[in-house]
C-alpha cells in the first residue's frame, strides 16, 4: 500500500472559483505518465485521502495535481486553501492503467477528456512516447464553461512543438465560446464534427482511443465507437479503447 509522506506545497494555482492545481515537492518513486497518487490531509484526527492523477511528466518536478472543489466535500476545499509552505500527505504508491505502455499499436491516437481528466493526458503528451508511436495525436477536452479550459499555455506549447501532428479540440457545452465545439463529445463524434475539425477519420483500422472522465461520456463514446467496430482494449483481448473513469 506504500507509505505516507508529509510533503510541502510549492504552489497553488486557482483557475477559477472551483478549479485548482496544486504543486508539491515529494520524493515519489518512478512512475509512468498518466498514473495517479493518493493525496490527503489529517482532518479531525482522521487521514482523508483521494486519488488524483499527476499532471507532470515523470521527469518533471514539482509534482502536480488538478482538481475540482466539491463544496460539501471534506478534502478538496481544504486542498484549495493550501499555500506555499503548507504540508499535505502523499502516498508513495503511484498506479493506474491510463498509460502509453498499455496501449496497442496504432497510427493515430485520440484522447477524450472531461473536466480535470485532462490531467493525465497532459502528463502523457509531455513525454516522447505518444509522438514516437503515432503519426498524429488528437486531444479533445470537454468542459461546461469556457473558464474551465485550463492549461492553455501547456497546450500552446504542445502545438508549437509538434505542429500539424497535434490537434486540440476544445468543447464547451453550456455556453458559446469562439473556436470551441458546442456539443458534447459523443454528439460531436456521432455527427462527425470532431473529425471534420481535425481532418482525420476515427477508424478501427488505425486508431487507439483513450477515454478519461465522467462515466456518462465514457459509456456514450464507447457506444458510438462500437458501431464503428472499435472495442475495449484488454490484456487478454486486444482492442482499440482504453478507459479510466473519474466518477
Low-pLDDT runs:
none
Count of spatially separate domains: 2
Oligomer: single chain
Please give the alpha-carbon distance between the first and last residues: 22 Å
Q: What portion of the residues fall into strands of 2 or more residues?
A: 25-35%
What does the overall shape look like? globular
Q: Looking at CATH, which topology of the largest domain would you report?
A: Rossmann fold
Q: Order of strands across the biggest sheet? A: 4-3-6-1-2-5
| Number of DSSP helical runs | 7
Instruction: Give the ordered list of helices and strands.
Output: EEEEEHEEHHEHEHHEHE
CATH homology superfamily of the largest domain? Nucleotide-binding domain of ferredoxin-NADP reductase (FNR) module
Largest sheet: 6 strands, antiparallel
Radius of gyration: 18 Å
Give the % helix: 10-25%
Average pLDDT value? 96
Number of strands: 11
Q: Assign the structural class, choosing from mainly alpha, mainly beta, alpha/beta, alpha+beta, or little secondary structure.
A: alpha/beta
**Which second-level CATH architecture of the largest domain applies?**
3-Layer(aba) Sandwich
CATH class of the largest domain: Alpha Beta
Family: Belongs to the ferredoxin--NADP reductase type 1 family.
Cofactor: FAD
Organism: Guyparkeria halophila
GO molecular function: ferredoxin-NADP+ reductase activity; nucleotide binding
